[in-house]
Amino acid sequence: MILGRSICAENRTGQNLASPPHYNISLLAEGQRDSIEVVLVSPRNPLNIGAAARAMANFGFRRLKVVSPFEPTWREARSAIGAPQLLLDAVESATLADSVASATLVIGTGTLTHRKAEQRVASLPGLAPLVSSELARGGHVAVVFGPEKHGLTREDLSYCHLLVEIPTDTGQPSMNLGQAVAVCLYELAVRCAAADSAASAEPVIPCPGTEIPSATSGGLDLLAGVVEETMLEAGYSPSGMQEANRHDLRLLLRRLGLNRHDMRRILGLFRRILWRLRRAPAPPR
Fold this sequence. Notes:
CATH architecture of the largest domain: 3-Layer(aba) Sandwich
Number of helices: 11
Structural class: alpha/beta
CATH topology of the largest domain: Alpha/beta knot
Distance between the termini: 98 Å
Number of strands: 7
Number of domains: 2
Strand order of the largest sheet: 3-2-1-6-4-7-5
Largest sheet: 7 strands, parallel
Shape: elongated
Order of helices and strands: HHEHEHEHEEHEHEHHHH
């Protein structure tokens, strides 16, 4: 009781009030947190959206995007305790492609229990160095969560650079949406800060090109569209394969890890090829 009274007295005198509590020092800096956004794809229950918003507020994240929500009144979710403004400021979009267009690293969440990954897979504890590296290049990160019933679809994941799996027991591999958001954001908020501290303690000379920001997801989709037009103009494959080619192309471009300069150069190359193909004389019949 004496200790408690002395602490209260210290606070009343105004000493050390500007210093954050010791358990907050290990969190990411505000600027870094604002470069990470949470994306909820087709959530059905407004209470789950509110729980996700509350988890974001717990760790200081403020950028929420909601893709094609099932319930139109999700912004009024009562479960967003301490985070009503976060729900009001959230951005709603019709498609995942639009929602992650500005992101340079798109991370899909899910389990491999009933799916075969088509992109790189990262464990949740191993995610922080990848995110820290992207933030250091000036990139923006989107962490994507799927619907409560079935999670992200194969089509959704084709927009993701990697898939992160939350370690859970095989008897119950799925998690509540709000809990999954909380677990992932805790890992990012704490481990990314630790990774930054370790990196600053051991400075290294970066490889050429690694300091250039990565291509945005929207930029990769633009490139994919031009490549697809070129494939069609060149008669690359039957029309029945267009959807499969489009899916594979999205994955391929994200596996390459292109920076913005490389993406623009390749885009210019394919635009030139397409221009040539469209102006080539038709073959004789």
